[in-house]
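Try it yourself: sequence plus pyridoxal-5'-phosphate, in.
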Amino acid sequence: MLYNSLYPASHFKTYDFTFFTFFLLPLVIPACLRVCTGRRRRESRGQYRNLDSHFHGNDSQTRSSNFNLATYIFNLTPMHDTQIRKLIDAEEKRQKKVINLVASENYVSKDVLEALGSELTNKYAEGYPGKRYYGGNEISDKVEMLAQERALKLFKLSPNEWSVNVQPLSGSPANVAVYLALVPQGGKIMGMTLSHGGHLTHGQKVSASGKFWMQVPYGVSSETEMIDYKELGVLATREKPALIVAGYTAYPRVVDFKKFREIADAVVYPEQGRRGALLMVDMSHFAGLVAGGAYPSPFPCADVVTTTTHKTLRGPRGAMIFARKDARELDKKVDKAIFPGMQGGPHLNQIAAVAVALKEAASPAFKKYAGQVVKNAKALSDELARLGWRIVSGGTDSHLLLVDVWMNGKGIGGKEASDRLEKEGIIVNKNTIPFDTRSPFDPSGIRLGTPAETTRGKTEKDFRDIARKIDKVLRN
Ligand SMILES: Cc1ncc(COP(=O)(O)O)c(C=O)c1O
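Structure, out:
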């Protein structure tokens, strides 16, 4: 009827148009999209149709054989395990509802999720491309090599000078694998202490990195709350660590990798008649910023670079280890430490999802994103400071900031701050601040990060609003 005035000449034509618009189009468009994008219902794929009754019994046979128009049109596949489905739905809803300021979290693309949930999860591929311990790995090899190629390209590295291992299951095993490869058991690892912003795997006693190796801890200056490179140099010269770790979990400032290189090069081992400690940069937190040109690259200075793939890099949970290729054969040692040293079969679905994220991170849109992440963190930090909160080190150069909410008893504890904010839909994590006088369970600070909310399109103005909301919640 709506179209009668448009097509008054023929009733038949009008009927035809209505039929086409309201009935045929909704069927045809999704079908075309499904064919073009390859996003077919998994259950309709041969192997899953045959196996469906094996997984779910006869009940599902009737269920699959009944054509479901809604399922067809919207490309929805109902999950058989309704308990888990409900929990996933609830988590999705929670993620959408909150303001997520957890510095180590992000929201991945649908493509990353699709690769993660793909059939690649079914395959065993122990070993490396071309050298597997299982058959049927022609495609696995292509997936892994593509991820490696994209990783090197993203960080502007020549395959003649750098290797990359994309098999680490996560950041912690990646770091431990580097020590296993390059530091003799009981040897010294110089890493930032946890309460000043280091990670557990930088040699803390409670981690394997502190049980099998010895940490030489360093911290930030009590005056500036930033790294004091002079002090660091004195410590390294005295302690002679085998390896120095730069790159942190809760350090908001730019790291001077050149100074770290000089400090590492100045270490002398008289009994071995050689000089030069290894420099490992753990860029887990700021890898996405390096990729997007918003933070200095550690590659010109480091021997080894580790990174998680799920923080600013906006990929699936996972990790990579980059190693310099030269006579020291760091790359070969690292590969051996990952497999067979630490891990068995790689998670190919995860590696494929990492490859997807690496391609996304090479786009101009991601460059813009990385720059915005830093601008947003500065806006959040400046506004909180303006409202009277003490920002550790006086600000940020990255995606994260530490707020001293305790302020020597004038404010509130970190746990209470985090709990109060959560009640109001703002998710943060409580965090120690350098030289904290309170316990890690109820420290003086909270850590805030901008990667997740920047992915959702927020800009400086939104973050200034968020700062005011935080201020209100913490003061009431
Ligand atoms: C600097 C740094 N390295 C390593 C890791 C460990 O990563 P994962 O949690 O994936 O083991 C983290 C995690 O937060 C981190 O911040």
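One thing you can check immediately is this: Residues 120-361 form a domain with the Aspartate Aminotransferase; domain 2 fold (CATH 3.40.640.10).
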